[in-house]
Design a protein that fits this description.
The protein is α/β, with parallel strands linked by helices. The chain is about 40% helix and about 15% strand. The chain contains 13 helices and twelve strands. The chain has a six-stranded parallel sheet, sandwiched between helices. The chain has a six-stranded parallel sheet with strand order 9-8-7-10-11-12, sandwiched between helices.
Length: about 350
Amino acid sequence: MNPRDIDVIAPNFKRRLSGVTSTIIQLVPLQAKSLGIAVLGPGLPADLPRLRFRQLPRLWTRPNGRPFRLFHARRNVEMLFGVVLRDALRMPLRLVFTSASQRRHTGWTRFLIRRMDAVIATSGKTAAYLQGPATTIRHGIDTDRFSPPADPAAAKAALGLDPAMRYVGCFGRVRHQKGTDLFVDAMIRLLPAHPGWSALVAGRATAEHLGFEADLKARVARAGLSDRILFVGEHRDIDRWYKALSLFVAPQRWEGFGLTPLEAMASGVPVIARDVGAFSELVPDGVTGRIVAPGDPDAMTDAIGGVLANERFLADAGAAALVHVRAAFPLSREVEELRAVYERVWREA
């Protein structure tokens, strides 16, 4: 993009797919319909409006019709980069930061946050960890991309899955923090008693977690379930895999926000989630799924087992999940609320 047409810069300084990356990929195309916005950094689709690093010197010029640009950071390294551009290089910028973290921030993070012109929290729990004013804006979801399949059997067959089988899924990076082992252990216990069900683990194990993934696959093999607990890897078209599910499990040990329950519910899939991240703010317990205590692995296994045999609950919770997400978590709502923060920063200047 021509830098003069850019009002907001959305940096992404991480090449690997992450929840932050997924948020940017979903938000920017919709934001670009009414706002001059461009991404900066690697790991993003080529069709997004983009500012190149070689264009950074042109940021000393002001954008058309605005007193300054906004630099919307979502990671510490991006906040630091924005501070350098604004304070050291004196570019006409103001800084916005979105925090999803639910832990006491380090001194370095607090130092950076104090230098932001506006701070956004992705949940009420996150806002409680911030030592200053913040606007709470929960993530939304693209309900056109994530939607129920027209033909569930065909959706499964297109992925090479058994159309007659029902699938319970756990999607996200394969690692201890994400609780992938808790999901696998639950499936090893439950699937022998539920012959009509299989499990899907979708996501990537980075180099430092390959041993963790190998151990999980070995556990599955020892249980004789390698044909029913499938590790399908990372997929950019993950929406197609949600369409194959009848139940989704979010077993994280800790989380910032966590988009996967929204993606599942938008696909008409009920969710069983541990009470971490924003999950209790996303999943109405007993309506669109179940929320279970994070310190009790047996509680999650029991909740899954109770649902696998409950056809009525699966149908009712799946239908309620779709209505809930479309009403409360459309991506357009998040775009509008972000725009209100941007306009406030411009107005207050």
